[in-house]
Amino acid sequence: MNAMTLQVVSPVPTDIDIANSIQPQHISAIARKLNLNPNHYDLYGKYKAKVLLPVIDELKGQKDGFYVVVGGITPTPLGEGKSTTTVGLCQALGAFLDKKVVTTLRQPSQGPTFGIKGGAAGGGYSQVIPMDEFNLHLTGDIHAITAANNLLAAAIDTRMFHESTQSDSALFNRLCPPNKQGNRIFNDVMYTRLKKLGIHKKFPEDLTPEEVKRFVRLDVDPDTITWRRVMDVNDRFLRKITVGQGVDERGMVRETGFDISVASEIMAVLALTDSLSDMRARLGKMVIGNSKSGEPVSADDLGLGGALSVLMKDAINPTLMQTLEGTPVFVHAGPFANIAHGNSSIVADKIALKLVGPGGFVVTEAGFGCDIGVEKFMNIKCRYSGLRPQCVVIVATVRALKMHGGGPAVAAGKPLDRAYVSENVGLVEAGCANLARHVEIVKSYGVNVVVAVNRFSSDTDAEIAAVRAAALAAGAYEAVVCSHFAHGGKGAVKQGGVDTRSRYLICAKDINALLIIIVENNPKKIVQSDVTNTNMHHHNFLMRFYQIDLGVVVQKACENATEAFKFLYPLDASIKDKIEAIARSYGASGVEYSEQAEKKIKMYSKQGFAGLPICMAKTQYSFSDNPAAKGAPSGFVLPIRDVRASIGAGFIYPLVGSMSTMPGLPTRPCFYDIDLDVTNGKVKGLS
Amino acid sequence: MNAMTLQVVSPVPTDIDIANSIQPQHISAIARKLNLNPNHYDLYGKYKAKVLLPVIDELKGQKDGFYVVVGGITPTPLGEGKSTTTVGLCQALGAFLDKKVVTTLRQPSQGPTFGIKGGAAGGGYSQVIPMDEFNLHLTGDIHAITAANNLLAAAIDTRMFHESTQSDSALFNRLCPPNKQGNRIFNDVMYTRLKKLGIHKKFPEDLTPEEVKRFVRLDVDPDTITWRRVMDVNDRFLRKITVGQGVDERGMVRETGFDISVASEIMAVLALTDSLSDMRARLGKMVIGNSKSGEPVSADDLGLGGALSVLMKDAINPTLMQTLEGTPVFVHAGPFANIAHGNSSIVADKIALKLVGPGGFVVTEAGFGCDIGVEKFMNIKCRYSGLRPQCVVIVATVRALKMHGGGPAVAAGKPLDRAYVSENVGLVEAGCANLARHVEIVKSYGVNVVVAVNRFSSDTDAEIAAVRAAALAAGAYEAVVCSHFAHGGKGAVKQGGVDTRSRYLICAKDINALLIIIVENNPKKIVQSDVTNTNMHHHNFLMRFYQIDLGVVVQKACENATEAFKFLYPLDASIKDKIEAIARSYGASGVEYSEQAEKKIKMYSKQGFAGLPICMAKTQYSFSDNPAAKGAPSGFVLPIRDVRASIGAGFIYPLVGSMSTMPGLPTRPCFYDIDLDVTNGKVKGLS
């Protein structure tokens, strides 16, 4: 092997620079690897395609591959590398272990890309590319959600306005105007409302004045409206606003606000649906508030379920992209993990599982720690999809475990305390209580757990050994190191850039007996080597080794999966029983409801929504409601401040504390660094 | 010819049903007709493609085709069929006269699609398809504009907030934080601000405290902010709102509002730019308001010009679609005609003119009547593009001319008065004063005028003759009938559906000697016929004949174009002189300025913006400011209520009366009828 083909770049470049340095394959080549032909997808440029929903029907007879979900321990505000691990694992499975693999990821919100967070395509040499397209617009799904969400919002205010200014008969004449033949007719969506009202008449002229009144007056109680407008921008000044102050709106002002678009219930619908007819039904059923008599008012009552479905008809098709190593990725849906279930779409997973087939892998990610993310993955997503995972990967870092063991606070944008960059096995061991509880939570579903320790360069072997011991003691199937510390990057260590086009890298035949193979180029020229060979010693090679190690372990965990899957709670339990089951899984001794929460639970039960699963809106920074309570707190009483519902998406969400649904911009947002290279149209400064 | 191949459908189906009944060609086939190869475009599904900007450079050496713009007389609220005429003309030129032709159209706003208006893809058998994709999302350009516009809005409020809560040095530390090497640096966009401030220093540490203050404090005067948020939804309750009422915003409330997205200045920038570097510059120069000392504050002052360009980088590529007859269409940009220039993009026209080449045609449309639409096309769009049209088509209807001659008011949704459906040559003749002035306005630019009378079934030959006589007397090059009355549809007349795949139709060799040719199928089997042949007598055949007639006339007008092009005003005239030149073209005797308008003219002049062209915001329903003043009013004084500016886009816009920039929804919006056929994903009820 010619060592000169190693493009050693030190320090490791920014994510966008790495992403831009790789020429992605045409997405039709990626599709071909999955046996998709051009009728199965629509291209969106050269590097993105929407795989079309009817593929599900075509593959109905096909068996599913293995289903793996990546969760995490309770994170620090810096994040523990779940996405990067997910992408790295798939690169290992697909590009080096020759397995069929699809990564299914959430589409990131565009707002934070320009704020603090930057992009969300993985990192370093484990990324989804083109990274700028992943982070910006993608194929327009979030824009479609914004449009649909806000059309519904506009319809609510306008309908209230029209009801306030018109008589029953004027409203009726306008809603059911005579057609050219002079006949009035109801259309489909009106029959939906009539049926709900118990009016079984076919012709408008047959309605009694009382029935006309009930039909035309939604009589929305403004104080009960839960539907807010959305925008995919971090705009804190829209959190609380007053609308309707124009003179033409005649004083019908109302306090409301904007959420970030991914917090829209329509995003949750997109993530949980699996067909056009199901999506149409869910969108129509979404409840926007109550009538003054306490009846839920739905999008279909407003005549809007069909139009919302039309706006969302392309969004239901998952977007195919690729990793830096050319393995396929589905990017689809990204419900806000704070108030929704934080998992990518069911549609993408279903299609992917058929495409990879038996022996193949679909690896997805569940937002936040396993207490919230994996819990919702199991009890909401898997419940609706009917799918069952064979393996859960829990990503842990020594840094986070030290924090849980009593280390100083960790904050974004501030230098790390010394405790985090020098050996302290005691702190790690103490913090492993957090990891252990996450392992136990996941094990309770009857699924194998693999712990992946995302190793940083300052982590010592003794610290790593402590984590592994704790993981195994807690019942993990296996615990391995996975690392992308190449981009943590101490300046003193020589770093290696991986030219993925030339595919030189390590291949593990077995965990214990590592055989390193260097595949130099296409056509493949295989050069055996070993880990002591000079050029093997840089971090990317180690990273790759670890990824492959993880891949082999995950494969074993899947092949040895149990068949003992069980949910945390049955759907027919009461709302309170379900909330309490989840709270106990956190370590709580009980639950305390505010007056408001009690009232809402009664209301939703009376309205017939008690049978829905529960989507807890809780901080991700602790098992408890108190983000400062690190480690594995127990015996606390979980306070439920309020209870809300996404009826169309299909869950009740209790609020544990207050959840921000609209982030802000910092004093110096990322956008200062983002610019266009006008000579070639490439994006600069995105990280 | 087998008469059975004529799929006669009576009454004429809805637009979406006609559009859905035709299987569009794969867009790569349309691209091939223009000699575009797959490197020249990005596919967006099977029926849309974005043609990539570098095509302009590649075609630099190529000569342009003929450039035709379609305008109208002063319209009724029902519209006079400009878009349908534009599409029909292109179908005739391309599919029947075998000319290379590209139609360049505005992308319609999605908001009105769900409100009153319905779709905007032409109508009947002259449409852009797929009609639902044309009207919904398209390739995401308007969504990109919404995102960029609102990111800038969020940045304004957040910056004011941060300036109000932080000291100069805290702001400076955050804006120019030390990097990993401990050095502070300015980035590119900061140098832009420093240059504007006259500070020519390279390093942050060299700034004096006074310079730091000037650098970090934009000191925006909230009362001067002209930048509003936008949404592509008809949401009247957002016209006037109060933002910042959340507790975390500490009382920094402010009154503002939302416009419909197409009213964003960013849309006008998109329409007027012709390269990435020009777009980057314009976006950075956009002025959002003044500092308290009266200096304009720009997007680049906020550090945002680069990020906005990144959000818009794909939107700059025009979208290729097709007509029902498979002729190519560019859909690109749709600036709000009320407060911007209402013309599709310069980029699309430039690319199209090269692609059709000498002897080919690019036909575009200018919103509203010629007094506003064509005037802005000439003085703003052509001024920035450097392109010159060879022919202007003015679309007129007998209906509108009767209204201008003194007929009763015409309103949407109300039955037409008898005057409009029975012969009244006198009313028509009187109304032709309106047509004559539009012809004169256009002639003054030194361009040939063709008048196209969009004939309805109730129009009589005598009425049509009167229009033709008036048009020629006013100096029109020619006046012909063009008709799509097939979809006006009197029930008694048998209607014909055109199966465009089988291409049987009429071909005119000459205006005077008409030869009708029936081209039955592919491969072409030509059957001569004549107009008296039985199956020729339905309306679509007549419509086609008229379209071809118009095509032949337009071709002659282009071939005989004069070289005497001149603008209405020179750019170096004062703002008032320019406004007055435009007002005189309307027939005004003078202009009257409000105190506010005087103040703003002084301010913009002082700020150095007096050299920009003028974009008049005036009602389209009259030459004057009074929409009720039909015909050709003269001697009136045009009142200028206020003067605003879109500095990045590059025009000053005086407001003649108040302009609504956010439409509302009616009591029964179109969305009631719009639904998805969940069995096949097709859209129903869009019209």
TrEMBL record, chains A, B:
GO terms for molecular function: ATP binding; formate-tetrahydrofolate ligase activity. It comes from the Eukaryota. The keyword Cell wall biogenesis/degradation does not apply. InterPro entries: Formate_THF_ligase, Formate_THF_ligase_CS, P-loop_NTPase. PROSITE patterns: FTHFS_1, FTHFS_2. One of its GO terms (biological process) is one-carbon metabolic process. Pfam families: FTHFS. Coiled coil: none annotated. Keywords: ATP-binding, Ligase, Nucleotide-binding, One-carbon metabolism. Pathway: One-carbon metabolism; tetrahydrofolate interconversion. The keyword Transferase does not apply. Its EC number is 6.3.4.3. SUPFAM superfamilies: P-loop containing nucleoside triphosphate hydrolases. HAMAP family: FTHFS. This is formate--tetrahydrofolate ligase. It comes from Lactuca sativa (Garden lettuce).
